[in-house]
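Encode chain A's predicted structure.
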Amino acid sequence: MSWLPGVLQRRFLEARMRKGVTAVALAAVMVVTAACGGGGGGSEPGRTEITVNIVPFTPNAVLFLGMEKGMFDERGITLELQNAASPVPVVASLVAGQADFGFVTTPVLINANREGTAIKCVAPIDGQISADRDASALVAAAGSGIDSLDDLSGKSVAVVQLASINLIGAKKMIEDAGSRGTEYIAMPFPQMPQALADGRVDAAVITSPYLETALADGAVALAHPSSDLFPNGTVYCYAATAQYLAENAAVAQGFHDAMEEAILYAKDHEDEALATLVEHLDLTPEQAKAQVIPTNYVPEINLDSIAAIQDLMAQQGSIPSTVNPADLVWQPGGGSS
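Encoded structure for chain A:
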């Protein structure tokens, strides 16, 4: 466990998901690690400084690669990164004007818009989720005696937040397997390997680079909810508020185009993308090389998958109303789909 990124451990705070994004917006701003203003204040002439709020994990390697290769710089954009524990405080930072773009999962995107907070996907994180390789998994603790999904009745499962893509996918797969009475506990990713090892939770939906630690400690992989349920889908994206996009269309276009270029470049240079994790996620070169970027490298938002995720949320009773998926995606040239 000693290799876990010390910087991330300090920056991550325990974050429990309240019932809605709007209800936590003001409090969640406190989770953001840096209170920097967005919108390009203090930029050099002809350049725009933007703040991007991320949840540090392996797929961010594509963004890091785009930064290192000058793909944003050549479009007159300078990036500053902030870290957050989960997508909910990211939304809060966007609404508060402390970040311009940020990492959100599709359920958080849907909930925010359903509750009146207009944010839109601008670019994929790394492409679409790969059908045959995933950087996240539902794992059972070593020595728990759990070796299949139907063993999770009455057990506890850690998820990063209580309205996450991880919860929605895990809940469907666990219930489809016949398990009932499973308890879901909100927990930041960096805390999950130790919680599994200590027996504080029976299972967890965990992502790289923390997944590898859990597996090395003997955790047993049971399923890969995101890739199993939503192959070639959009389960997360970089988003911005509708207001920011209306006022900064040219910047949004540049960010979108730089991410598209970075995704396509990373497809043929994945080793370079993984190498960026040494600096940005505080991994060793060996650890970085072993990571999985769970993408098909298609630089497009999959609207059908957003609709499918929303349908599943409605079926599970986690949302009382729905939104038009097309309204959740910004299109180059302005507007929604």
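The first strand starts at residue 48 and ends at 54.
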